[in-house]
Design goal:
alpha/beta; Rossmann fold; Dihydrodipicolinate Reductase, domain 2; about 475 residues
């Protein structure tokens, strides 16, 4: 199967924070891959902007090193040399006046103008104000902002109001890279492009849903940042909330940005407040020479969670009675992200001693090895009567799509191209962000008032024992965490 590559319009893309980690690991390698795929016009220009004083040649050399390291390409690759011709650089003071006239001089009229804020959220307002004040951005320009979108409801509202002073909502692209993953988008295709699943996609037929995002790494090296956020702010309020919305939302009237986001917003607003017994916080502990979370965070008395598990309920007609179990954590057994939809068991078995039919299960793997797996019951091959066995109908995207599917676009590649196209479907809207914080804030406030320490768990495990009991009391079990 050969994927189609549709070139985008000519564009000027300015990357603020172009010397930073995100630009090196994701943005620049992603743009290069889209260039190699033939999606970037030959006249497009990519302008790096940061505090560092350097010329175009030095920035191109820095970009070449980043693309070679994180994009898997040789420094002397002819296509890399061609791509670097599209790059230029401006040294700029985000909170002053230096460099803005030079940036304005580089911008062209009559092309798509996009500005990627790959900087700390504290600088969003300063950059937005100067883009507008210097006449660099206009009513058709687009800005891309990275998370965190605030750390609570009040700061999220303040951030939205700051951006709204200079840009309309249709110009603001709040990026969540999870929504750019191929499998996440295929979740919508599976639900809404096939008659097979949607009639069963409700509390009558689905027993429960599990969403797992597990990591094997700790927070060493970024402990000071992480200790101010924790697992619920870092993962649940944004990435996992988005996955929950895509699973639970009603079919939109059209695959249109606002239609999709309207339905996601309805899910968030239908979330029931979380009961104290429906959430477990954990913190990985020291193991021999391996430091625990307090050591990695640089605070021996830290009460910030590196793990959280919760039972979530959605109060609407489709999902009343079907729980959603969410868990995410650091230093767990394997690195994996998956969504598992467990259907109810058949109400009656016609088979006697040939094995009890097990529940069907649809597992959607986000990483690693993106794909989908549907478990069904069949007769075990061979003579000797009717013996039932559960088997997977497996679809690995790399296998199913052939050689062209093995190098699927990274989430950032897809999302940046969507910005150039002006398609906001896979980006969060301001009211969506605020609704997510409105649900999350009382949970965090209860933790801070209770002053309870998170449950300890061993590095390399599946999390704290209390999280297992969260499922066991409902006569259910977490899926095994494995790569």
């Amino acid at each position: 199967m050969v994927s189609r590559v549709i070139p985008v319009e000519d564009f000027d893309l300015v990357i603020f924070g172009a010397t930073g980690d995100l630009a090196h690991r994701k943005i620049l390698p992603g743009l290069f891959k889209r260039y190699v795929a033939g999606q970037v016009p030959e006249s497009a220009q990519i302008i790096g902007a940061a505090r560092t004083e350097q010329d175009d040649a030095a920035f191109r050399d820095m970009a070449a090193a980043a693309i070679a390291e994180f994009g898997g390409v040789a420094r002397d690759d002819p296509q890399l040399k061609d791509f670097l011709r599209h790059l230029s650089y401006v040294a700029i003071d985000a909170q002053g006046e230096g460099g803005w006239s030079a940036l304005k001089g580089k911008m062209r009229g009559g092309v798509v103008q996009a500005f990627y804020f790959s900087v700390a959220p504290a600088l969003f307002g300063d950059i937005a104000e100067r883009l507008a004040g210097h006449g660099i951005a206009d009513a058709d320009s687009r800005i891309v902002v990275e998370k965190p979108f605030g750390r609570d409801l009040s700061s999220a509202k303040a951030l939205n109001q700051t951006l709204a002073q200079h840009f309309d909502e249709h110009q603001i692209y709040r990026i969540d890279h999870y929504l750019g993953k191929e499998t996440v988008q295929n979740l919508m295709a599976v639900r809404f492009a096939n008659v097979l699943f949607e009639p069963l996609w409700n509390a009558q037929f689905i027993d429960h849903v599990q969403i797992t995002v597990a990591e094997t790494v700790g927070v060493a090296g970024r402990g000071s940042y992480y200790d101010k956020s924790g697992a619920i702010r870092d993962m649940v309020q944004n990435h996992m909330m988005q996955l929950l919305c895509l699973i639970a939302m009603e079919p939109p009237y059209h695959f249109d940005p606002d239609a999709v986001r309207d339905e996601k917003l309805k899910v968030i607003r239908a979330l029931e407040p979380l009961a104290p017994g429906d959430i477990v916080r954990g913190q990985y502990q020291a193991d021999g020479d391996e430091p625990g979370y307090p050591q990695d965070a640089g605070d021996g008395h830290s009460r910030t969670e590196s793990y959280v598990a919760m039972k979530v309920r959605i109060s609407n007609w489709r999902w009343q009675g079907t729980p959603f179990y969410l868990r995410t954590g650091k230093k767990l057994r394997a690195r994996t992200s998956e969504i598992a939809i467990t259907f109810k068991e058949p109400p009656h078995s016609i088979f006697d001693d040939s094995g009890t039919p097990k529940a069907n299960e649809l597992v959607i793997r986000l990483q690693p090895n993106e794909g989908m797996n549907l478990k069904v019951m069949i007769k075990e091959p061979g003579p000797g009567g009717m013996r039932l066995v559960q088997v997977p109908l497996d679809m690995s995207f790399a296998d199913a799509l052939g050689p062209d599917g093995q190098d699927m676009p990274d989430a950032y590649e897809r999302l940046i191209m969507d910005v150039i196209r002006g398609n906001q479907t896979l980006f969060m809207r301001g009211d969506e962000v605020e609704a997510a914080w409105a649900w999350t804030d009382p949970i965090i406030a209860a933790w801070e008032e209770g002053k309870q320490r998170p449950e300890p768990y061993d590095a390399g495990s599946s999390g704290p024992e209390e999280a297992l009991r969260l499922m066991h009391r409902d006569n259910r079990r977490w899926r095994e965490i494995r790569a």
